[in-house]
Amino acid sequence: MAVKKRFIAGAQCPECQEQDSVMLYVESGVEVMECVACGYRKHQASDAAEKQAGGEVIGVFKPE
């Protein structure tokens, strides 16, 4: 199945400061922000997962 990626109009990359280069998509149930200009990536886990982890979340395991 193809991953649906969408660009965020007016968004600026926190790493390279390039505008209109940021896209969002869901990967393994986790929202990912990626800059197509520099390759910067940030994963956004759910609030419940972040609280349970007690720190920065590397990934969320979802058994099928």
Question: What features would you highlight for this structure?
Answer:
N-terminal domain of TfIIb; 64 residues; 1 helix; 4-stranded antiparallel beta sheet; mainly beta; 11% helix; single chain
Secondary-structure map:
Elements: E1 6-7, E2 22-27, E3 30-35, E4 41-44, H1 47-53
Antiparallel strand pairs: 1-2, 2-3, 3-4
Would you kindly provide a written description of the structure presented here, covering whatever features stand out?
The protein has 64 residues and is mostly beta strands. The chain has a single domain, classed as N-terminal domain of TfIIb, CATH 2.20.25. It has one helix and four strands. The chain has a four-stranded antiparallel β-sheet, with no helix packed on it.
Q: Output the CATH class name.
A: Mainly Beta
Can you give the mean pLDDT? 80
Helix % is 10-25%
- Work out the helix count: 1
Number of distinct beta strands? 4
Q: Domain count, please report it.
A: 1
User: Remind me, CATH topology?
Assistant: N-terminal domain of TfIIb
| Cα shape | globular
Structural class, judged by helices and strands?
mainly beta
Return the string of H and E elements: EEEEH
Q: Give the end-to-end Cα distance, rounded to a whole number of Å.
A: 16 Å
Major sheet: order of its strands?
1-2-3-4
Radius of gyration: 13 Å
Please state roughly what percent of the residues sit in beta strands, choosing from under 5%, 5-15%, 15-25%, 25-35%, 35-45% or over 45%: 25-35%
Low-confidence stretches: none
Q: How can the largest sheet be summarized?
A: 4 strands, antiparallel
In the CATH hierarchy, what is the architecture at level 2? Single Sheet
